[in-house]
Amino acid sequence: MSNERRRPREAPGALSVVTTTELSRSPHQVLARVAAGERLIVVRQKRPVATLQPLNGVVLQLEASVQDIYGWPVDAAFQEATKLSESQRELLIEARNGYLRPMALAQDFDFGGLIESIREMSLRGLTKRTHRGWELTGRGMVLREALLQEQPAPTD
User: Fold this and answer.
1) Domain range list for the chain
2) pLDDT tens by residue, 16-66
3) Which of 21, 56, 63, 121 is most deeply packed, by most CB within 10 A?
4) How many Cα neighbours within 13 Å face the side chain of 83?
5) Any idea what DSSP says for residue 103?
């Protein structure tokens, strides 16, 4: 069994991830990777906080990428949202602090069906089971934001 630390999963073509702990303990190694041409996402508690990229002698401000930090095209979230069931859409919209709240929807949907929807979302990489409940993954959060953008603005 390897004693190599477990690293966050990365989507194919995604930027590599480095934790703030790894950066603070081995800054020379991390910066050597950047100097060699690698672009990195720095994460703190599984949330992205910065990017590191080689300057190649030129300093410039980059515009937002057409890919999210997981390497997915930004518009892919809108395409993926069309594949969700009504209960899955509502579960994502009603999520609070990164966690699903199936009990909040129990009056509108069959509770067993909600749990099955959550399991399907987990298989698709949108949620994961933790000791506190069903937590949204980074991809789940991106999809939730896409759904919230689709919501009509409230009228007074």
Assistant:
1) 1-72, 76-150
2) 899 999 999 999 999 999 988 888 989 988 888 888 888 765 555 545 555
3) 121
4) 10
5) G
Q: How far apart are CA 47 and CA 113, in angstroms?
A: 30
Same fold, 1-72 and 76-150: no
**Record: fold of 76-150:** Arc Repressor Mutant, subunit A (1.10.10)
45 — alpha (psi -120 to 50), left (phi > 0) or beta? left
pLDDT for the residue numbered 24: 95
Q: Is 100 exposed, middle or buried (0-12, 13-18, 19+ CB in 10 A)?
A: buried
| Fold (CATH) for 1-72 | YefM-like fold (3.40.1620)
pLDDT at 134 > cutoff 60: yes
**DSSP label of 156:** -
What are residue 133's DSSP bridge partners?
130
Q: What is the mean pLDDT of residues 117-146?
A: 87
Q: What share of the chain is helix, strand, coil (3-state, %, to 5)?
A: 40, 15, 45
CB atoms within 10 A of CB 7: 11
Residue with tokens 């949204």: 136
